[in-house]
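Q: Here's a chain of 392 amino acids. Please give me its 3D structure as tokens.
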Amino acid sequence: MKIYMDHAATTPVDPKVIDAMKPFFSEKYGNASSLHQWGREAKEALEESRAKVAKFLGVKPSEIVFTSGGTESNNMVLKGTAFYALKKGKHIITTAIEHPSVISTANWLKSQGFDVTFLPVDKEGFVSAEELENSIRDDTILVSVMAANNEIGTIEPIEELGKIAHEHDVPFHTDAVQAFGKIPLNLENVDFLSASSHKIYGPKGVGLALLREGTKVEALLNGGGHEGKMRSGTENVAGIVGFAKAVELAEKDMQKEGERQAKLQACLIEGLSEITDSWLNGPRQNRLPNNINFSFKYIEGESLILRLDEKGIAASTGSACSSHELRPSHVLTAIGLTPEEAHGSLRLTLGKQNDEKQVDYVLENVKKVVSELRELSPLAKEVKPIDDKCFG
């Protein structure tokens, strides 16, 4: 049996998305900037896709800039805002648990003379509104808080945090890569948003940046003035069409699929909680419906992942963007785990093809592998036999 439970890293492309993209590889292959009929055909598809995505978010089509994905979108907003607002100030606020594409960009800006405040989080990963309020200064030019955490699934109160930023006339950005298409988002107090196609069964290499009308952002790429002069370069029309189709499907299935995944999530959390010296990382409520992150004492997460892979189970120990690093997860240490505890983590993220039978198989094998690894550890306590199944 082969079971993929690493959907926070990436998702398979939906067959309906592939079908929507196919004509734009070899039939409707024009450059959207060309004036002839091939170009006009591509331009029409591009703008129809923009309109679909904008409607899903409840924003104007002119506020959508297509990018190569979440990393580029985050860089566009943070660097673009920073360089445009140099005359006002050099202070940026973000959090200690952001995606590496935000934290690395913030640290790079620090090296360029900007001042960055990394807000702490509580033991469940939530940002404090009071902490944000107290951190805003006269020279603050941007607040960036992710909508939902990619490792522990915490859904941040972006509506409240964005309101605080706006009360101080500071623009608010949210990295919504993990939340986009999975949960409803209130964007009333959001000026900038980042999203990625491959997290919602669309193609890789496509994403978007929401840049609200009236916001000021310096373009990172110069050239032919594509995407409202914000991202020069010939548009990936096939990818954008696929992204728009994935958004259309996500909007249709979001509530029903979220409820289905939440039931599978509850079973996994209940079953893994039976393992001695284990705990759920992140909150039980206000959590993405597909995310489960557990820590197990006396084992190494890398060994657990490799053992599960041998049994046909794809999982993760944290962010896919830093999975080859030996450092403990910055998210897990930020919520209070020791480096040793953080190294013993397992992230399971559910998707559309996962079912009850697969959940039972995963539970059975995680329990077996944890027990086997602990037998090799001189620090481990004896693990009592526990029920392997939830649905069976």
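Q: Can you summarize the key feature?
A: The chain has a mean pLDDT of 94.
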